[in-house]
Amino acid sequence: MAAVRWALEPVDTTGQPRVLDLGAGTGKLTGVLCAEGHQVTAVEPDEAMLSELVRLHGGVRALPGTAERIPLPDGTMDAVVVGQAFHWFDQEKALTEIARVLKPGGVVAALWNADDVDVEWVAGFGEVSQSPLGARDFDVTHVMPAHPLYTDSEQATFPHAQRRTAESLVATVSTHSHVLVAPDDEREELVGRMLAYLKSRPETATGEFDLPMRTLVKRQVRV
């Protein structure tokens, strides 16, 4: 919640802000925005994900579309937020299109969740959970670059935690693309390696534990 509130801090909240959840997926961020009392529109290109979002958040206006072609009129949104997806966009086209639908003074904000690798056991898990086909983390340094249609570029990081077990954490990582596309024998070996590591650590060997995480937020204001 703190990360979302900071992301939307420049928005005038005297009314009910109109917020676009762009690349909304199945609606995880949509639910947070609704809980904050915003008037939410969700846009997502994948039909299956959009259907799941509608099932979970039936009162939300949900539309098929992309960051480069947003199915909304000019200047109708107070804010556009993007969870875990901005790095997939064509940056120049997306920022221009987002500026089109934002009101002057509106905010575009991108959020990413990542494990807190400053914690020693979390960093170790990150190493053992990599496969030859890719790592679990990605670099967002150059995502959402400076753009002439925006000002006040800022970013902030917010610590939080998720309650996990060794089995639930491994199950989640097993849904990541670098694991799903691995050959069966390689995937089986990777899953076994992750579980063995967690069972070997006193912080995670038995029962539930907190997985330390960080949310990085980048925001800019429409001129």
From TrEMBL:
Q: Does the keyword Transferase apply?
A: yes
Q: Does the keyword RNA-binding apply?
A: no
Q: What keywords are assigned to this protein? A: Methyltransferase, Transferase
Pfam families, per the entry: Methyltransf_11
Instruction: Name the Gene Ontology molecular function terms of this record.
Output: rRNA (adenine-N6,N6-)-dimethyltransferase activity
Q: What range(s) does the Methyltransferase type domain occupy?
A: 20-109
Top-level taxonomic group = Bacteria
* PROSITE patterns (alphabetical): RRNA_A_DIMETH
- Belongs to which family? Belongs to the methyltransferase superfamily.
Q: What is this protein called?
A: Methyltransferase family protein
UniProt source species:
Umezawaea tangerina
